[in-house]
Amino acid sequence: MTSEESGKILQFLPFSSVISSSFWHKLTQMKIDVYALSDEPVDITGYYTNQSASSRLPACLNVDYSSFENHHASVVGRNGILCQGLLQNTNTFEAFKDINKQAAINKCGEQIWNDILSGAALLNPSLLTRFLLLTFADLKKYQFYYWFAFPTLVFPSKIILDEEPKELDKVLTKDELHQLQQAYDQYKATCGQSAFLVEKNPDLGFKCHPLKELANLKNTTWVGFCDPSSLPTNPGWPLRNLLALIAYHHKERLAGLSVLCWRDEVRDGQRRIGSSLLIEIKDVVYPTENETNPKCLGWEKNERGKLGARMVNLSNSMDPERLANSAVDLNLKLMKWRLLPELNLDIVQNTKCLLLGAGTLGCYVARTLMAWGVRHITFIDNGRVSYSNPVRQSLYTFKDCINGGQPKAESAANCLREIFPGMISLGIDLRIPMPGHYVTDAEEIEKDVQLLADAINEHDVVFLLTDTRESRWLPSMLSAYLGKLVINAALGFDTYLVMRHGQREPWNPGQVQSEKSKGVMRGALVGRQLGCYFCNDVVAPGDSTKDRTLDQQCTVTRPGISLIASGLAVELMVSVLQHPEGGNASAEISTAAMTTVQQHQQEPDNKEISGSPLGVVPHSIRGFLHRHQQVLPATEAFYNCTACSPLVIKRYAEEGYAFLSEVFNNPDCLEQVSGLADLHKDIASIEDWDYPEESEESND
Amino acid sequence: MTSEESGKILQFLPFSSVISSSFWHKLTQMKIDVYALSDEPVDITGYYTNQSASSRLPACLNVDYSSFENHHASVVGRNGILCQGLLQNTNTFEAFKDINKQAAINKCGEQIWNDILSGAALLNPSLLTRFLLLTFADLKKYQFYYWFAFPTLVFPSKIILDEEPKELDKVLTKDELHQLQQAYDQYKATCGQSAFLVEKNPDLGFKCHPLKELANLKNTTWVGFCDPSSLPTNPGWPLRNLLALIAYHHKERLAGLSVLCWRDEVRDGQRRIGSSLLIEIKDVVYPTENETNPKCLGWEKNERGKLGARMVNLSNSMDPERLANSAVDLNLKLMKWRLLPELNLDIVQNTKCLLLGAGTLGCYVARTLMAWGVRHITFIDNGRVSYSNPVRQSLYTFKDCINGGQPKAESAANCLREIFPGMISLGIDLRIPMPGHYVTDAEEIEKDVQLLADAINEHDVVFLLTDTRESRWLPSMLSAYLGKLVINAALGFDTYLVMRHGQREPWNPGQVQSEKSKGVMRGALVGRQLGCYFCNDVVAPGDSTKDRTLDQQCTVTRPGISLIASGLAVELMVSVLQHPEGGNASAEISTAAMTTVQQHQQEPDNKEISGSPLGVVPHSIRGFLHRHQQVLPATEAFYNCTACSPLVIKRYAEEGYAFLSEVFNNPDCLEQVSGLADLHKDIASIEDWDYPEESEESND
């Protein structure tokens, strides 16, 4: 008769995994921001406690957001026992399924076995309680597939008992319990390991020692370990590898060994260690295979009691707005995984954009900005939604047109929040004062100017998307004065212009002299040397809306043009923002650039001057749908520009609204201030001269 | 004492204009479709009646939708009196205001005077009752500014009466009234003019004669005219020019002339002419100025009693859906006024579009189609709206994402109708069966195939906008089989491909032999020779979704790209539709086209091969945002193409679903059917040969 037949085989309570949802949120973040495409296993930590003996809870191994940190806060806070884990998060569900589970757990078993062989586990028994966590995070759906393993070596293969484990308060007196507790506390304070030795000295009572002392302690009665189990008959999983360690190093002492399954809870304000178990090992059985590499097992069963993965769907339990927020972020961050790791999404997300015009361009620009993660968008428009708008202006629907139409700026801002509740969007119903549009109510207009100036000042990028040339003058001038980045888009019937204005430093009175430059620059133009929308003009903007026929009143365009121009306008902004020089980024031009504007001939394919991870950062993009042609002209700032020249800005800086009022009522004054009038005189006086044709400039 | 002092001066009741809203709708249509930019005066007609004597209504001159027709239906229907009018509709409000009103009415007065001088008005007295209508139609706001003139010659300048006009039933007996009525009816039946003579023959009673008989009828007692006035004391406006006619031709008979103001109504089922007035002219005063060109007046006063224009705002009274319809139409038709008169908008509007995929591309393509006036859009998609969608997919909002998300196809279709109620939009929740996606439920899949085939058959243009290559195979093949135009758009991170598939005739079994051509064509490729999305492939499409990482599962793209590609896709479709050859239009390419695909070198700037009013109609457009480059490669249909080759189509035509089922489960069979497998063998056998590099083909 074998001892097996005469005794009882000891059964161990396996760990049950407990995953805090904070773990998944943190994993999501790590996957997006840190791991990206990598599916290499990473170290994480988990913990268990031995503090719930009377709760009859399963033996929980917990992971949470701290599992990704070196210092696992939950372990310290809850007096838990730290466990080393290995997380392997696959990129696809296929890979998750395809991982060789036996190989994975064997590898971990080998590691434990090696730590036993080397004696490392004797010095640090926490090396014995490892876990594996295999995951696939479907971040699009907030579904997480996972499978835990708690590897345990089948060595010995069986532990045989003579009698049932006994609860400690049935073995020790109250005094003895108290004494043991003190001995343990003393040990824990100095050593802190989850496995220990308990020496019972007839004279001195109990004393605890580190595990490594086993060979030296002949009087040792018990081997103790912090036991996650709360069953009155069974110890928890960690004992298995602990017994393997003892079996390897002290095989001779295993039969007859007493094991203390240390359970240490506080119940009703009272510390209780009496639920700890004492187990007397009668005999052990070893596997028949070679001992040099014991078998390893320990994959957790799922909720159906099968060896298999589990899935948790967090989408239903999460706040929908937060879900939307993460989903939008995720989509953007995916760009960084493989394609553009150097992309700085925060710069884009934190950019405040002011859209002047909430029409076809304004709507599509806002949508493209949102797709790029921009959260702060303000519209300025003074129109109302009309019946022809919704099919072209993508933030409005039929219901916005009824009864005279909703105000556009406000409707557009509301729509952005309906699309994505995280938007900080505002609509300002404001008519932009314009040169040549005679001012009747000066006080009102002065207020409007202030409102516009404040709005520009509070934003980082100003988009000019209005439908007249002259409505772009004031914001162009104010943006130059305030040193803001301006992105300008304008449509023809089947042509488009998308450009950035040369971005200057905010105005300071000293700059007039230093910036005067009239000649063509050599080499690339940096951002602050680039022109604005008005730099090609040799006449001041005036009232162009009077006397326009119906087809001139609205922008009659091929519908596809506005999508193309809006897409390019936002991509140009993002390219500028991603450039290390920002608005001062050098302008790149195409070889096929127009010949009627001043050009700086460069071949981008030959000479890489772009510093933006998104590619070339042109000054302007002109497209011609009729021929599917696109050119990238760059033009220098014009010293006599009516909008951005230091002469004009200086006048505004000095006189403020008084100057503007003059401009609104008499745009010719701009030609005086900017020096254009003198230029006209000069040109008139040389009119009859014979000068070469190529010096002509075409007025845009 | 002058006769003026001894008598009463006759006052005439001016016309009051009455404009049916149908007039404005018709004017809107004429302006948009016919007049366009022209503001030349055009002939219209109006009418008045003499049938409301007892109603005490003003003397109405009516215009309505029939005013633009030669045959004025309302005149005939209501027994009205036709008036010739001249409509001048200006292009701008400024022009409306600036028209010289006096000059305009003088011109019309001259015309009347000339008709008097020439005697034409004697033969046709309706030449005397002319009107002018000056309008400005603000078609964007449905506001119509207008001003009527009823030109009347101040000749004589005064008509003096001895006594008040008398009502006819106070002058004639009942019998005489009856007799007069019969005489008038007889006259009207044969002559029908609004002015006439009434001869009272002591024997024969009353007889009516045309006006031209005045000289011959010595016994003439009365000059009659159909009188729009219902006042018991005053005749209507038409009498003034009638008296001018008589004053010129029969000046001697004016003093003492009896005028019959003919009022002819049916009241309570009884015909009544007794309210007609009889006026005895005592004397006349002529203007002191020269008689050769009498003064003309007659501009209508507005509702405030001032000489000035009126405005009617129809937007509030119109059905909002109809307003939206017209507004959308207007915006498109404005293109035809100046820019593209040859544009055929009906072709576009009547095109039924099937969009496969309701994601980023699907949403923007649908919006661009709507802006072009397309009314019939169907989506096929089997996804649900997820939280990351709305910021990129422009037909969804946050609310569509909650609780697992709405089905995309249906949501997108609903949104189109919210944007524009005139849309005929449908969403079909269908997963497109794909090669290599193993079929588990064959019956279900067969139904899906049939549903897809039916949908393609019922539409004119199929857009391929899905996110995998293999989901495009079945619709590509079916569209080739059914001879539909296919527009394909696909995105990379910062690249895009927009192409049309070569459009064939619907399949007929005879075409296999005739279309076999392997060599490079010389000259431009016409539409049916062009390749499809799969023509560059040398392997069959298979399951590409298995094993894709998160950033490969969704299309990670620069957000601007999808707007650009969607805009181009729709513009390409419209360019094809506008081309006289339609889908068979020759493909044009750019000079900078890619060098890795088979090309047909042509220089569009030198050789105009486009027949589309919208410009070049390329086969494909490939764009690279990184460099802002765009090329227009054209590639020939590949005889061994897995999607569009006659070999594959033939198999489908012969075997139907049995063939497809084989393809879904084993895409390699496509390589057998298409002959690709043999090609592979051929290539393998010549692998070691030394062949020139340029014959290599790069797999797209």
Automatic annotation (TrEMBL), chains A, B:
* Gene Ontology cellular component terms for the protein in this record: phagophore assembly site
Give UniProt keywords alphabetically: Autophagy, Cytoplasm, Protein transport, Transport, Ubl conjugation pathway
Q: Which GO annotations describe the biological process of this protein?
A: autophagosome assembly; autophagy of mitochondrion; cellular response to nitrogen starvation; piecemeal microautophagy of the nucleus; protein modification by small protein conjugation; protein transport
Tell me the ranges covered by the THIF-type NAD/FAD binding fold domain, including all copies: 335-600
- Compartmental location: Cytoplasm; Preautophagosomal structure
Q: One Pfam family, please name it.
A: ATG7_N
Q: Does the keyword 4Fe-4S apply?
A: no
According to the UniProt entry, its GO molecular function terms are:
Atg12 activating enzyme activity; Atg8 activating enzyme activity
Q: Which Gene3D superfamilies match?
A: NAD(P)-binding Rossmann-like Domain, Ubiquitin-like modifier-activating enzyme ATG7 C-terminal domain, Ubiquitin-like modifier-activating enzyme ATG7 N-terminal domain
Domain called Ubiquitin-like modifier-activating enzyme Atg7 N-terminal: residue spans: 10-318
UniProt keyword Cytoplasm present: yes
Oligomeric state and interaction partners are given as: Homodimer.
The UniProt similarity line reads: Belongs to the ATG7 family.
Q: What does this protein do?
A: E1-like activating enzyme involved in the 2 ubiquitin-like systems required for autophagy.
Q: Could you identify this protein by its name?
A: Ubiquitin-like modifier-activating enzyme ATG7
Source taxonomy = Eukaryota, Metazoa, Ecdysozoa, Arthropoda, Crustacea
